[in-house]
## 1
Amino acid sequence: MVKAFIFDLGNTLIEYPAPEKLKENCAEFAHQMKISGEILNRMHELYMKNRREGFESFREATVETALTEALQESGREVSDLEILELVEEIYHYGFGRLAVPIEGGIGLMKALKERGMKTGIISNTPLPGFLFMKDLDRFDLLQYFDDLIFSADFGKRKPSPDIFRASLRNLGVKAHEAVYTGDSLDRDVKGSQDAGMKSIWLNRKGRQEEHGGYVVSSLIQILAIKELFA
């Protein structure tokens, strides 16, 4: 019996630009930011290097770590509070201002809560989770979730089984009692299946690939998968 539905965030519940576009998205507003273009470029280089390495080790690369290193290299001394302010600024221009809720999210979450389901999010994030929680809140989604895990805070990224197991522990359910929904076959579908969970692939682009789980083209279609609610 399914007791919990867990979701990816980016491009599953909220549309975000790819982390690779961070520098490009910030560049237009560099004159308004408290960080120089030179530091921003170096931060992006370091972040992308750490990100590539993280694909193998499952360790999450963060903008905060890369920014701190770039500032240290430049000789600029900043406090932890200043680092946080810069990180929030980078988030706003690089991600937050471009975020768009994906259709059907609120309707789905309302229906799941009405059916007594526990709900969670597991998301690979390059920045602290509280920033993404602000987006969930402004799009009226935050209220529907019992547990939130962001890889920048957790330290490991999907498809590491550790991050899926942490969510299951937090929700108090066993792997076979949970369903994970996401848009990535590798990180979301295979990752959750390897952790013993059922999976739903949100395939909004109509790709034709084997995946071994359920597939939907829109979030609201999840409610039509009758065996998950039997």
## 2
Amino acid sequence: MINKFKTFLDGVQAEFKKISWPTYEELKSSTWVVLGMSAFIAIVLFVLDKVMSILVLNVIMGR
């Protein structure tokens, strides 16, 4: 059991050596992309929600 765990940890360590970590500039750039897309999606969902609310209210109220 201990040998299997040691083998597992050796494998984990070997895989960590293969990781290509992003530079600070790449990380900063990716962060802005994620924030921008999140804001865009939030705005689109907000607009769709308002339009659907108006449509549903008009159907229910019979306007």
## 3
Amino acid sequence: MNGQPMLLLTIISEAVLESTLIDEIMAMGAKGYTISEARGRGTHGIRSGKWSASGNIRIEVVGDSDLCRHIVDNLQKYERDYGLLIFTSQVELLN
């Protein structure tokens, strides 16, 4: 299939930031997002993944490199006070 190359921006964050991050992501031009529960272990310790303000969420956004860079640049301000991991992967949009 000939798909359109895009980036998948993945944000792992404390659940308490969910509404704030979504508001900012949409205001920066994202067309949509997916949120799922996330749990694991990292530099901030073990996260239980309970779907509450103490758990973690995974937010995924598909966009071009300019949109993803814009979102990353604007969300890095939260790294100082919250557990936040942001990364991109190349994806091929098929529909």
## 4
Amino acid sequence: MSAIVVVDSGVANIGSVVAALERAGAATTVSRDWDTIRAAPRVLLPGVGAAAAAMRELRSLGLAERLPTLTQPVLGICLGMQLLFEGSEEGAGQERDWVPGAGARERSAVAVREPTDKASASDIAPQSPAPSPALLPTPCLSILPGAIRRLTAVPGVRIPHMGWNALLPRRAHPLVAGLDPRDYAYFVHSYAAAEDAHTLMACEHGQRFAAIVARANFMGAQFHPERSAAVGALLLRNFLALSTETLATC
């Protein structure tokens, strides 16, 4: 069985995530102990709720500066994926006492390999000018560049984005092997990351946003794999099959 540690961040629906991992063949441990997390072959960062509360909990556990130093495969799901970015628009007036990017600067992981396959400009919805991530109200882990911003409501499109939606392939990666164009996954969120060079699959809900991302050993899925039936199960199996050696060739 593939071993994995699920980070107990205190704000996640961990039970359903653990059940999905065990169905996928994982030997799962739930922990907030840094030595246990650091020694794990793989790490999953789950999350539901608000970015500000999640970052406050990670800081209180001493994990906000440490998680970016991990070198094994790491997967963030839903809010857990959003926390991988530099900052979030969510949580105005909170989290101003933490310096954005501190964890990334201290990272001792292997050098990040930037993807060379980029989505064409015509595939990416234009973005409105926005504040720098460093100026956003909730600084996050600064593992992936960019900011998490609130989805824009347009006629016929409701926020939060809740329900099944199609995945749009952007570039090949072992994490998304076997996922077909227009496979559907289950989303529940009001904030998202824009498409960029780290996007493996995108989604559209009034605007396009990153649904699956990867940078070096850090990956993320905006949707809920544990609620996405066969598509979610395949993504988790793919992640459990990853190793540091596999990712070094991506």
